[in-house]
From TrEMBL, chain A:
Gene3D superfamilies: DUF2063. GO terms for molecular function: DNA binding. It comes from the Bacteria. Keywords: DNA-binding. It holds the Pfam family DUF2063. It comes from Donghicola tyrosinivorans. This is Putative DNA-binding protein. Residues 3-94 form the Putative DNA-binding domain. InterPro entries: DUF2063, DUF2063_N_sf.
TrEMBL record, chain B:
Gene3D superfamilies: Divalent-metal-dependent TIM barrel enzymes. Belongs to the UPF0276 family. It comes from the Bacteria. This is UPF0276 protein CLV74_101101. InterPro entries: MbnB/TglH/ChrH, Xyl_isomerase-like_sf. It comes from Donghicola tyrosinivorans.
Amino acid sequence: MSIQTTFHAGLLDAAQPVPEGLTDGEGRPAGRRYSVYRNNVAVSLREALTTGFPVTRKLIGEQNFDHVAGLYLRAHPPSDPRLMLYGAGFPNFLASLSALSHIGYLADVARLELAIRHSYHAADGNPIDGNALAHLGPDQLMALRLSLAPSARVLRSPWPVLSIWQFTQDASVGKPKAGSQDVLITRPAFDPQPQLLPTGGATFISALATMPLGEAAEAALRSAPDFDPSATLGLLLAGRALEMPSC
Amino acid sequence: MFDTTMRRLPNGPGVGYKPQHYSALIADPAPVTWLEIHAENYMGDGGRPLAQLRALSERFPISVHGVGLSIGGEGPLDPDHLARLKTLCDWLNPASFSEHLAWSTHDSAFLNDLLPLPYTDATLSRICAHIDQVQETLGREMLLENPSSYLAFSESTWAEPDFLREIARRTGCGLLLDVNNVFVSATNLGFRPQDYTAAFPLDQVGEIHLGGHDEDLDDHGAPLLIDSHGREVADPVWSLLDITLMASGPRPVLIEWDTDVPDWPTLSAEAVRAHRALQKVLA
């Protein structure tokens, strides 16, 4: 086996012996000098997960988080040097751990944090202005095809995921009430803004990708008779989350 | 072969850029004259990081410092990562691009640390081939940085300064001399740091790095220094900088502070100290 294969194997598995052929300055076995690299790898990758999932960490506590982060980084080290993307599989990993199964909403909170991070780094795109649609007549508006800006995200959850995310950071917002929540993340300037979507909003937004605005509104109304397209359209425009298709 | 008209880093103090210092840098950067960024932090698709970098690049020469290319890796360079690096360099046209004499990726796992290499003829050939590929792809000369060492390889047949000199001779790359790394390695492996810098090809050095280190002990109770970039530069490292600059003449000198990042006054005080060290050899 090559030296990098052995060196690598021991970095993520403390049960592996220190590779042979490594010495201190006087030719003695390297011993715990090798552990400096073990420590650097584990600490820096755990730090990347800590930075990426602060609310998840707060929900389960620092010790528990450090433990599951250690499990994750050993099972799934990054496949890409862009650590800003690291942890895409972390929510599913959390969902797979039986020790955390009593916190059913945990994976969705992690998914929300991941979506916010991806929104932060997404391309700027060419979002339309809030009043860009003001001059259109009703028929023109209904026939309009729009697409989502690269920084816009929708997360649908059977849990009150946004309320939990907010309450974990600021208890003064009040305790979350049971029930599902759909969350829209927009990036009006540089900081992603998660906000609650009304019933039907998520259906409307996903329909916009494939059909004109009027048909998307009808699809949403079929799933939610009280749906108000103008309210969700307003959220999207204010969040600079809509683009004209390039074709 | 390379674009020689691109701007160069000034022979003044620079700092590793941290977003929390953006406003301070725009208001009054003195004595800082240039900035260094970690390439991988600017490989997103948009948003604040790239907008800030664009604004900073209009005011400062920028050094792009890669930490993820794994130039010393046994496998081929990651073509996707190299392409992202080219995209960044083409967009930014930085005054300098540098990477490390180290590896960090194995079997597609990125380990986020600068891992050590045995200094053998086989390693030399592989690294030179990788550097050729990087310089051809980017269309610019790169600098290669000496590592901090915590251990040695019994199979090594080259001394590190000779190894770096030979890489520079074969590939035409420049070198980045991290004098804190020299001090850390010298303490950890038991050689005199000034012997290392005296043997180093200083005429190839395009940039000098300084950073703080932590102190630990090895199995035998001997000092083991860790390159942490989390505190002030140690006094003996400042002395080593003086000795180096006296031999090399003025160079761009960077303060690296990457963990427990301090407020701007603390960081700029370190840059002031680097500025004074440079004044001594400019006078």
